[in-house]
Automatic annotation (TrEMBL):
It comes from the Bacteria. GO terms for cellular component: cytosol. Keywords: 4Fe-4S, Cytoplasm, Iron, Iron-sulfur, Metal-binding, S-adenosyl-L-methionine, Transferase, tRNA processing. This is tRNA-2-methylthio-N(6)-dimethylallyladenosine synthase. It is an enzyme of class 2 (transferase). Its EC number is 2.8.4.3. [4Fe-4S] cluster 1 binds at residues 52, 87, 121.
Amino acid sequence: MDKTEYVNIIEQAPVGEPERQHYFMQELREIVMERSDKLGRPLYANVTTFGCQMNAKDSEKLLGILEAAGFTASGEETSDFVIYNTCTVRDNANQRVYGRLGYLNSLKQKNPDMIVALCGCMMQEPSVVEKIKKSYRFVDLVFGTHNIFKLAELLYRQMTERHMVVDIWNGTDEIVEKLPAERKYSFKSGVNIMYGCNNFCSYCIVPYVRGRERSRNPKDIVEEVKNLVKDGVVEVMLLGQNVNSYGKTLDPPMSFAELLKMVAAVEGLERIRFMTSHPKDLSDELIRVMRDCPKVCRHLHLPLQSGSSRILSQMNRVYGKEQYLALAEKIKTEIPDISLTTDIIVGFPGETEEDFQETLDVIRRVRYDSAFTFLYSKRTGTPAAAMEDQVPEEIMKDRFERLLKEVQRISAEMSGKDVGKVMPALVEGLDDHNPGMVTGRLSNNIMVHIPGEASDIGKIIPVKLEESRGFYYMGTRLP
Ligand code: 5AD
Ligand code: SF4
C-alpha cells in the first residue's frame, strides 16, 4: 500500500467511538492477513501483564482488540506483536520492565518484523517515556492508561508508517463502551465499575497515572454482567481503585451498595466480589448488603497500610487506628464468617519502631486471613517522596521480615478455622501438581484442593474441608 492510500484510510475513519476503533480493527485485519499469507502462518500476539487486577482486565481488552484485528493469541514473547501492560506502583515493577525490554530487544534482532509495544501506568510518567524514546529506540508503540481503547488505531498507524508511535493522554472523561475483550477465564470475569482515584494517599502514584475518578453508568455495568452470565460466567469481580466512591459523580448519584444490589439481581450470576474498598468510606449500607446478599462473597479486602494513626495521617488515609479497628470489629460482628485481607506498607517516611509496633498490634487484633506486605517505595512526584526522614533500607527490611512472620503465623492459624465444614467451591482449574485433583475457590477466597477433572472447571460444588495446609485446604467431594 502506498502512503496516500493509508493516509486516505485514516482520513475516512468515523469520528465517533467505538465505531472508529472497529473500523481500524477491520483495516488491520487486511494488513495482518496479507502478512500472514506471506509467512504461511498466523500472526501471533502476546500481551504480558504487570500489576493489579485493573491491568489484568485492561489486558483482556487489548487481546480482544488484537484478535478482532486478525492476530492469534499466544503466551510466547517470541510473537509477532508483543505488548507489555506495565505497572508503576512500586519502583521494582518499573525495573522488571526495563530488564525484560533487554530480552525483547534480543528477540527483535532475530525477527526485525516483530512489533514491540508498551502501555499502562508506567507510560503515564513523562520521565519513563523520555527514557524509552532515548534509550529503547526499538520500541514501536507507546500509549498510556487513558487511551487503551485506541490500540487498533495506533497499531494501524505503526504498521503503515513504520516508525515509533507515541500517544500519551494526560487525562480523560471518556469511557468507551462496547469494545471486544478476550476473557482469560470462561467462568469468571472482572468488570470495571470505575476508573481512576481521587484519594491521593501521599505515597501513591495511582491518582497521577490513572487520573480522576469516573464511574461507569450502572446500566452499562448490569448489561455487561448479564452478557457475561449468558456467556457462562458465574462469578464477577467489580473493579475500582476505591469502589466505595462509586457513583458519586453520576447524575443522579448512586452508592456502591445500590450498585451491588443491582448486580446481585442478575439471574444466573452466582458470586460477586469487589476490589478495593477504602476504610475511610465503607458504609453501613454496604455491610448490610454484604450480610444480607448470599451472592456477595464472604471476603473483604480492606487495606490498612499502617497501624499508626500518626503515619496514617501523614499518608492522607483519613482514618486512624481506632477507627479502623472499630470498622473491622463491626464487619466481623455483622458477618462472622467473613475473611478479611489487607495491604500493609512498612518504612513510610518517618515511621518509628513505635509506629511499626502499632501496625503489629492491629494485625494481631484484626487477625487477617492474609495480607500483602510491601516495602515503601519512593515514587517521584508524590508528596511522600519529598518528606524528610526516609527510613534506611536495613531498618525497613528488618521490619518487613518481622511483619511477614507475624502475618504468616496468624494466617496459618486462621486458615484452619473451617476444617470439618462443608462449603461451596468454584472449581477454577486442574491442580498442576496432583493429577486427578482440581483447585477450587471458597466464597471467602481461600483455595481448596479436591478430587476432580477438567469437566468440573467452572462449576460450584459442595466440598468438605478435611485438612488445612497453611494457606489452603485439602477437601473431599460430597456424594
Ligand atoms: N510503596 C509501597 N507500596 C505501595 N502501595 C501503593 N503505593 C506504594 C508505594 N509507594 C501499595 C499499597 C496499595 C497497594 C496496591 O500497593 O499498599 O494498597
Ligand atoms: Fe493509591 Fe490511595 Fe488511591 Fe489506593 S486509594 S489507588 S492507595 S491513592
